[in-house]
Amino acid sequence: MKGARLHLALFLLTVVTTLYAGAYYIQDYDIFVDFPHRLLTGLWKGVPFSLPLLAILGSHEFAHYFNSKRHHVDATLPYFIPFPNIFGTLGAVIKMRSRIMDRRALIDIGASGPLAGFVLAVLACAAGITLSTVGQEVPLKEGDITLGGSLLFDLMLKVFLDADIADKSVNLHPIAVAGWVGLFVTSINLMPVGQLDGGHISYAFLGTRHRYVSWAFIVLLVLMGAFFFEGWLIWAALLIVLGTKHPPVADPYSPLDTKRKLIGLASLAVFILTFSPSPIDVYIP
Prior knowledge:
Layout: H1 2-27, H2 37-42, H3 47-70, E1 79-82, E2 89-93, H4 103-130, E3 133-136, E4 145-147, H5 151-161, E5 168-171, H6 174-189, H7 197-206, H8 210-227, H9 231-242, H10 258-274, E6 280-282
Antiparallel strand pairs: 1-2, 3-5, 4-6
């Protein structure tokens, strides 16, 4: 019961922080201005951002949770992580407290979260992009934040808005921003490193050779951090601290069936489609 209260408290705090992030995005809402009047009248404006984002994060983690239960793995309910950044959260996690039995279970548990979140993120992007507006490119002001594209997101902009982001300015609807965050979270989780979801999938296919993939991808992150987005340097350091190894499954010799191989290939395709070498940029003249 005590644990359930913690899960609920973190979720409610994340609701507040994502509402604030969404309200700030829509109307430059600042919780510290005209407090508490604007808190009561303005925070609800963040719903178009907060609601789809929480649905994406929740579907991701509950897919992990229910697949863990299906394979008799002891797992906690999701821990949502509130955080005062531009999105109001650092995502959500579950904790597995017992060993995963075989490689097929590892694929099911590892891939189910990103694929479930991916479906809702694509739906949010499609709905939000149709509500977005396109104009001529406008000069950026100091501190303006731009979101980088991915193969899938840029394609959806082209399909739904006929927008070439190279020479036009797209004012994204908050639902589209939530979808973008969902795609970004999906790509982060599918990085084939350590015990990330992508690490689970990589280990299921490669076994102990997975550690070489982990280190190769960390080197790639460092290179991208040097040339594209400095935040990848932080991710590289964090992943080294968290560990590049993956604990063995109880039965490492059970073969992967065709279904699990296709799920693994689908996860790789989703990663390629959603990954952005330069996801966030803050304009500094």
